[in-house]
Structure formats: structure tokens, C-alpha cells
């Protein structure tokens, strides 16, 4: 399994771990519409991480130029898709747009900061550090 997908799945799993807390807090503060909007925001964040990983995994098999294009172009395309999703959901009566946008922004940053503790930044052992919920190469 590639390192990008491994890290993205780990991030998505962590989004699932924080989801109950986020939904309860937002539900208490903004009601059921806020909780639904936060749930959609969490799903968008998890999907964004998984799509980014798939794109990078594909680019790695092509060329260095494809990697650069996937990183730079993929970021702007995914950002445009996120904007499109928010704009498409804005007229929906039960969507609390400020909660949706804040959930997407805050959880992206919070999950990435949380993930930095789990990622090995050495070329000798790229990907997740051993013992972070993913099977090691010898177990897989």
C-alpha cells in the first residue's frame, strides 16, 4: 500500500474519532441544522484527504512533473470543488453555511496538526510511524 493512502486513511479515521464530539458541541451551540452541517463538513474533509492521496499515488507512477502538477493543480482543483460544494449547499434550508465552512477549515488544520505526530519524516521509513494503527510492512 502506498504511503499517501495510508496517511489519508489514518486522517479519515481520526475525523471519525472526533466527529461525535464535534457533532454534540455544534448541536448544542447551533441546533440540529448546525450538527448536520458539521457532519457534512467532516465528510467533505475526509473525502478531500482521500482524493488528494489517490491523486498523488497516481502521479507517483507517472513522472516528477505529474507529481508537481498533482500537488499544485490538485490543490486548486480540490479548493474549487470545496467552494462549489459550499455554494451548491448554500440554498439548502437546513444547511448552516458558517458552521459548514468553519468545520471544513478547522478540521482540515486540526487533523493535519494532529497527524504530524504520527508521520515519519525520514526517507528511510516514510509514512506512518510504527504503532499508529496501520499494519507494518511485515504484517501486511
What does this structure look like?
The protein is mainly α. The protein is built from three helices and two strands, in the order H-H-H-E-E. Strands 1-2 form a two-stranded antiparallel ribbon. A hairpin with a 6-residue loop joins strand 1 and strand 2. Helix 1 packs across helix 2 (64-89).
- Rg on CA atoms, Å: 17 Å
Task: Please estimate the helix content.
Answer: over 70%
Report how far apart the termini are. Answer: 9 Å
Number of strands: 2
- Structural class computed from helices and strand pairing: mainly alpha
Please state roughly what percent of the residues sit in beta strands, choosing from under 5%, 5-15%, 15-25%, 25-35%, 35-45% or over 45%. Answer: under 5%
**Helix count, per DSSP?**
3
Mean pLDDT: 83
Question: What is the overall shape?
Answer: flat
| Spatial sequence of strands, sheet with the most strands | 1-2
Question: Summary?
Answer:
This protein is mainly α and 140 residues long.
List the helices and strands and how they pair.
Blueprint: H1 3-60, H2 64-89, H3 97-115, E1 119-120, E2 127-128
Helix pairs in contact: 1-2, 1-3
Keywords:
single chain, 140 residues, mainly alpha, two-stranded antiparallel sheet, 2 strands, 3% strand
Amino acid at each position: 500500500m502506498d504511503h499517501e493512502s495510508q496517511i489519508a486513511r489514518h486522517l479519515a479515521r481520526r475525523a471519525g474519532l472526533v466527529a461525535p464530539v464535534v457533532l454534540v458541541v455544534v448541536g448544542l451551540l447551533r441546533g440540529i441544522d448546525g450538527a448536520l452541517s458539521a457532519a457534512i463538513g467532516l465528510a467533505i474533509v475526509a473525502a478531500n484527504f482521500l482524493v488528494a492521496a489517490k491523486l498523488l499515488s497516481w502521479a507517483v507512477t507517472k513522472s516528477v512533473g505529474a507529481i508537481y502538477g498533482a500537488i499544485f493543480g490538485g490543490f486548486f482543483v480540490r479548493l474549487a470543488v470545496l467552494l462549489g460544494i459550499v455554494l451548491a449547499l448554500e440554498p439548502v434550508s437546513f444547511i448552516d453555511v458558517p458552521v459548514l465552512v468553519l468545520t471544513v477549515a478547522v478540521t482540515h488544520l486540526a487533523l493535519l496538526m494532529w497527524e504530524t505526530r504520527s508521520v515519519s519524516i525520514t526517507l528511510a521509513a516514510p509514512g506512518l510511524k510504527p504503532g499508529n494503527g496501520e499494519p507494518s510492512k511485515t504484517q501486511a
